[in-house]
Amino acid sequence: MEALANRVHNINEPQTIAMSKKARELMAKGIDVVNLSLGEPDFETPQHIKDAAIAAITQNFSYYTPVAGIPELREAISQKFLNDNGLHYAPDQIVVSTGAKHAIMNTIMAIINAGDEVIIPTPYWVSYSEMVKLVDGVPVFIAAPLDQNFKITAGQLKAAITPKSKAFLFSSPCNPTGSVYSKEELQELVEVFKQNPQIYVISDEIYEYINFVGKHVSIGSFEGMQDQVITINGLSKGFAMTGWRLGYLGAPKEIAQACEKIQSQYTSATSSISQKAAVAALTGSKEPSLSMVKAFERRKKFMAEGLASIPGLINNNPEGAFYFFPDISFYLGKKFGNQSIETATDLCLYLLNEGHVSMVTGEAFGNPNCLRISYAASDEKLKMAVERMKSALAKLV
Ligand code: PLP
Question: For the chain, which residues make up each domain, given as ranges?
């Protein structure tokens, strides 16, 4: 009998993590690699949040908490949804999880049966397709090309819907492209969803604060939509708290209760300490988050200029998150000595091994002509990365 279950063979390891592993291996050999492959802010967690966690430890807040989160945190999230997003989720419609990733997985487990289709605009965050496959759901991809700034249209959405469509899963601001759906663009999608009330929208808003084009718009805030939307968010990106593992969702009550039930048999509540820290994050000063966003915006401009100076790249214009997703197809089919570069993955490995810059192949995000470049790194490192990319790419003939 085979040792491993089929589901293990059906999914891939995230290439974001795989690339980082490769970069670390080179670094362990003493090679100085500029790592632009990871999706996490390079800032420290703000002090007032750390203080709340330290106080929680000192006060022995170290026991199991209610599965869906401590009441004061669910209340703080409920207020956050209302104040920031115009969303009316009561505390009992909120489930706190071990990261937004866990909140998405809970949602998928709660609503997707084998054979149900989940519509995913492409490029998409690496884990979406694999999470759907883990529950024997069927990911249905809609291609959003660069000349649409990687956003789908209402017409494309309509065409992808079948009687088996159960959910639509997307992020805005988007990982990997940084694209942000405007209010008008969301309104067009909303019209389609209203005609198809059997489809749940899973709206991943983890990059909410890292938005350079004005206030974030939640799709659940459109009139008549909230009962059709599960809103996912968390502290990882906006508060530089990736390691604290705290995410959450707001959902129609039945779905929230289902997520709580699943989580109760799976992981239970997330860390009690992180929950206390999260209360401080959500109710305290947003100043550190705002200055982080300003730094990202400055770096984005810097990177845009740097990437524009590299021949052959076609750059997108990210409006949020901290990624560029340039089209690199100009370099496909070129060679370095005997080594030919046939795919974005080949190019990515070449840039790592020859240029000592680590990024992620677009293939991981459903687009084989692009690379994802994270600019969550210091100015100095970004400068070095652009120079290295330029000189490594110039060697390809
Ligand atoms: N959603 C998107 C689009 C992400 O990019 C990430 C992390 O990279 C997550 C969710 C997961 O976030 P968390 O750290 O809260 O699990």
Answer: 6-44+288-393, 47-283
Ligand 1: distance of its center to the CA of 204 in Å?
8
- Which CATH topology does 6-44+288-393 take? Aspartate Aminotransferase, domain 1 (3.90.1150)
**pTM score over 0.85:** yes
The residue among 126, 37, 73, 144 whose CA lies nearest residue 358 is 37
Tens digit of pLDDT for each residue in 193-229?
999 999 999 999 999 999 999 889 999 999 999 999 9
| Cα 89 to Cα 93: distance, rounded to the nearest angstrom | 6
State the CATH class of domain 47-283.
Answer: alpha beta
Residue 206 CA to ligand 1 center (angstroms) comes to: 6
* Ligand 1 pocket, residues with Cβ under 6 angstroms: 39, 99-101, 125, 171, 175, 204, 206, 234, 236, 242, 247
What one-character-per-residue DSSP string does 284-324 give? S--HHHHHHHHHHHHHHHHHHHHHHTSTT-B-----BTTEE
> Which pLDDT tens digit goes with each residue over 229-278?
999 999 999 999 999 999 999 999 999 999 999 999 999 999 999 999 99
